[in-house]
Design a protein that fits this description.
The protein is mainly α. It contains four helices and no strands.
């Protein structure tokens, strides 16, 4: 199989989580009875991908099945909270579509989506205050105050 184009594994992951949704949406459930479950799996995969990107890079360009292939998407097109909301929406869609158990080992199920949804909601609710974290760490070479306990 010959690969065309340039890119990295991240671009492949983007396409692997977005292109199938665009392809599967027009198909009716009568033509593809497993459609709802597969759509749920794709929402789960996209949510997991963007969750990882969000916690590692914070602001990332959000691309979904409605984004034109030639569109230029900025990483500031959405606020941080809007990006969390889109990730949460993917996991909620996965929870609604996935079965409680799968016939094949390793496939995402409703409980995996619920766990990721809960984790995402926790991350989205946490707002780091930069004035109270790293600034209070002892720096090498600075004297420790005598009233501070040593850990």
């Amino acid at each position: 199989m010959q690969r065309t184009g340039t890119g990295c594994a991240g671009t492949t992951a983007f396409h692997a989580s977005i292109l199938p949704l665009a392809a599967i949406n027009p198909i009716s459930t009568s033509d593809y009875p497993a459609k709802d479950g597969r759509v749920g799996e794709l929402h789960f995969l996209r949510g997991a991908l963007y969750f990882w990107l969000k916690i590692h890079f914070d602001r990332v360009p959000y691309v979904d099945e409605t984004t034109a292939p030639t569109a230029v998407v900025s990483n500031t097109a959405q606020t941080s909270q809007q990006l969390w909301d889109t990730i949460i929406a993917d996991f909620r869609a996965a929870v609604a579509s996935l079965p409680a158990t799968q016939s094949q080992v390793g496939r995402a199920n409703k409980y995996a989506a619920e766990a990721y949804l809960a984790k995402t909601l926790l991350y989205a609710a946490y707002v780091q205050d930069p004035t109270t974290h790293a600034g209070n760490v002892d720096r090498p070479g600075q004297a420790r105050r005598s009233d501070q306990p040593r850990h």
